[in-house]
From TrEMBL:
Pfam short name (any one): ADH_zinc_N
Protein keywords: Membrane, NADP, Oxidoreductase, Transmembrane, Transmembrane helix
Family annotation (SMART domains): PKS_ER
Domain of life: Eukaryota
UniProt name for this protein: Enoyl reductase (ER) domain-containing protein
Domain Enoyl reductase (ER) per the UniProt entry, residue ranges: 96-509
InterPro entries: ADH-like_C (IPR013149), ADH-like_N (IPR013154), ER (IPR020843), GroES-like_sf (IPR011032), NAD(P)-bd_dom_sf (IPR036291), Quinone_OxRdtase_PIG3 (IPR014189)
Organism of provenance: Reticulomyxa filosa
Length: 518
C-alpha cells in the first residue's frame, strides 16, 4: 500500500492547466516565457498512495535552459574595417493596416551626421511595461508618442552593437574605432539593423564576468482528485529554491547566462534613467554637487553621503528601471520600499534588496488563496508603518492613481520625481485638488523625460554614470535583470508579452541572422 509512483512527463503528454484547458506541455512552456528555449524539463513526482487523493508529497523539478543564442563569430571580423554599408536595411515598422509590428527589408540605412557613429545592431532593447499602460515603445507604436524633432521615426531607445562607421567630425575617434563593441542611449531608431547615434551617447560595453540574475518561472505541480494541476509564478533563479505549498515541494535549478550583447542591451535606458532620477533629481547622495549643465547640476555619488534621503518609494519596482533602482538603493545604503503587481514580484524585489513593499494587484486566484496575498492595503499606510516620517524620495512612473497616496507617503522636505504616467496624467476630481501640501511639507516636485534632452546633457549624465555605476556593474555588485529575449521577427510578441505584464526586468530583441555587407 506504500508503493511509490513515478510520473515522468514529456513534451508529448497532455495535462490539465488549472482544470480548464488541455495543451501540449511544450506549448505550455513556450507560452510562459522561460527563456530562449527549453532544453530539458524533467519532472519527478513521488507520492504515497494515501496522499494520491490530496496532493503530491514531493515534487522535484530540474529546469535547464540553453545559453542565450550565440551570434555568428565572423560578424565581428566583418566590421573590423569600414565596410560598404548597404543602402537598405532591415527594421521593425508599424503596419499601416494591422497596426502591428512587422519586419521590413526595405528601410533606408541612416546617413551619418556630424559627430555620429553608425552601429550594427546585435541586440535591441525593449523596456518592460506594466499591463495596459504607456511606456515609450508601446506608445510610439500606437502613434501616441512621436519622437523628438530630428530623431529617427523607428522605435527603440537603446541598443548594443558594433561600430561600423565613424563620422570625420567625431572627437573621440580613438575610443570609438570601427569594430568597437558598444551600447548606446538613443532618441529613436533602435529596432533596426543599423542605427546612427551621437558619439556622446555611446558607451563601451562593460566587462561583466557574472552575466546577472536570470528571471524565470517556477512551476508548482500537484495532484487533486487524480488530476495533475500546474501553476506558475515568477522568481529570481540564480540559486536553488525550495518552496512548500500544502505538502507540495518545489525545487528549481536553472543554469543560464547571457552574452555581453544581451547584458549591454539591458543597461542604457534603465540604468541611466534610474541613475538620473535617484541621484540627479532625488539627490539620494546628500548635498554634493558637481558640474553644471544648463539648469541641471550633477550629483557626485558618495556612498557615505546617502543618509539624509534614506527612504525611497519605488513604484512599479519590478520593471527594468525599478529593479535597477532597488539595486542602487541596496548598494548606496538606502531603504527601498516598493509597489508591484504580484506577491512574487514583491518577493523578487525583497531578494534584490528592497526593505518592504505592497502588492497593488494580484493576478492569480490560486496564488492569492494560498499565499496570503490578495490586494494589499494602501501602500502609503504600509510605508508609514515602517517609516513613520515617510519617504524622502518618491520615484513615480504611475501618475494619477497614486497621486493622493504619494502625498501621504512623502516625508517633509521630500523629493517627488515623476517620470511616467502608467495610470494616466489627468488627476481625478482635479477641480478639488489642493496644492497646499507642497508648502506644508516643503515638497520638491519634479517631472522629467530623458529622451528629449540635449546631447550635452546626456554626455555629462553618461559620464557621471560611467564614473559611479559602471564599476559596480563590472564587479558584479549590480546586474541587469533580464526576463526574456525575442527574435527581432517577433517584436510584436515582445510588445504583447510586456503589455500582459508577464515579465520582471528587461525584455530584449535579438538579431539572429548574420548581417552581410555589400
Amino acid at each position: 500500500m506504500d508503493k511509490i509512483a513515478f510520473l515522468i512527463l514529456s513534451f508529448s503528454h497532455k495535462v490539465l492547466i488549472e482544470g480548464k484547458k488541455r495543451k501540449k506541455l511544450k506549448d505550455i512552456f513556450a507560452s510562459m516565457g522561460v527563456g530562449i528555449f527549453v532544453e530539458v524539463i524533467f519532472i519527478l513526482i513521488i507520492m504515497s498512495k494515501s496522499e494520491v487523493t490530496s496532493t503530491g508529497e514531493f515534487v522535484h523539478i530540474t529546469h535547464l535552459t540553453s545559453n542565450s543564442e550565440k551570434l555568428i563569430g565572423s560578424c565581428l571580423k566583418d566590421v573590423e574595417r569600414d565596410v560598404n554599408i548597404p543602402k537598405l536595411m532591415q527594421a521593425v515598422i508599424v503596419d499601416t493596416q494591422t497596426k502591428k509590428l512587422v519586419l521590413s527589408d526595405n528601410i533606408p540605412t541612416p546617413e551619418l551626421r556630424s559627430q555620429e557613429v553608425l552601429k550594427q545592431n546585435q541586440k535591441l532593447n525593449f523596456t518592460k511595461k506594466k499591463k495596459g499602460v504607456n511606456r515609450a515603445d508601446l506608445m510610439q507604436a500606437a502613434g501616441k508618442y512621436p519622437p523628438p524633432p530630428g530623431a529617427s521615426e523607428i522605435i527603440g531607445l537603446e541598443i548594443s552593437g558594433v561600430i561600423v562607421r565613424v563620422h570625420k567630425d567625431c572627437t573621440h575617434k580613438e575610443a570609438l574605432k570601427v569594430g568597437t563593441k558598444v551600447m548606446a542611449l538613443l532618441s529613436g531608431g533602435g529596432y533596426a539593423q543599423y542605427v546612427s547615434v551621437h558619439e556622446s551617447c555611446v558607451v563601451p560595453l562593460p566587462h561583466i564576468k557574472d552575466t546577472g540574475y536570470i528571471h524565470t518561472n517556477i512551476f508548482i505541480f500537484f495532484l487533486l482528485n487524480n488530476i495533475l494541476y500546474i501553476y506558475t509564478y515568477t522568481c529570481m533563479c540564480t540559486y536553488i529554491s525550495r518552496k512548500k505549498k500544502k505538502n507540495v515541494y518545489v525545487y528549481i535549478k536553472k543554469k543560464s547566462e547571457y552574452d555581453e550583447w544581451t547584458v549591454g542591451a539591458a543597461i542604457p535606458e534603465a540604468f541611466i534613467t534610474a541613475y538620473q532620477i535617484l541621484f540627479w533629481y532625488g539627490k539620494a547622495n546628500g548635498v554634493n554637487e558637481g558640474e553644471e549643465v544648463g539648469e541641471e547640476k550633477t550629483a557626485v555619488v558618495d556612498q557615505n553621503q546617502a543618509k539624509s534621503n534614506k527612504v525611497v518609494l519605488i513604484h512599479a519596482a519590478a520593471s527594468g528601471v525599478g529593479t535597477t533602482l532597488v539595486q542602487y538603493c541596496r548598494e548606496f545604503g538606502l531603504d527601498a520600499f516598493v509597489t508591484v503587481g504580484s506577491d512574487d514580484k514583491k518577493q523578487f524585489c525583497i531578494q534584490l534588496g528592497a526593505k518592504g513593499g505592497v502588492v497593488f494587484v494580484c493576478l492569480f486566484f490560486f496564488l492569492r488563496e494560498r499565499r496570503g496575498g490578495g490586494i494589499n492595503k494602501d501602500f502609503n499606510k504600509a510605508l508609514l508603518e515602517m517609516y513613520p516620517k515617510g519617504a524622502n524620495i518618491v520615484l513615480d512612473c504611475v501618475g494619477q492613481s497614486y497621486f493622493k497616496k504619494n502625498i501621504d507617503a512623502i516625508a517633509e522636505d521630500g523629493r517627488w520625481v515623476v517620470y511616467g504616467f502608467l495610470s494616466g496624467s489627468v488627476l481625478e476630481n482635479s477641480t478639488a485638488f489642493d496644492m497646499a501640501f507642497l508648502l506644508r511639507k516643503r515638497i520638491t516636485f519634479i517631472g522629467t523625460t530623458l529622451r528629449v534632452r540635449s546631447h550635452q546633457y546626456k554626455q555629462l549624465l553618461i559620464r557621471n554614470f560611467q564614473r559611479d555605476i559602471i564599476p559596480l556593474l563590472e564587479s558584479g555588485k549590480i546586474k541587469p535583470i533580464i526576463s526574456k529575449v525575442f527574435s527581432i521577427k517577433h517584436a510584436q510578441q515582445a510588445h504583447d508579452f510586456v503589455n500582459a505584464s508577464e515579465n520582471v526586468g528587461k525584455v530584449l530583441l535579438l538579431w539572429q541572422n548574420k548581417i552581410s555587407h555589400l
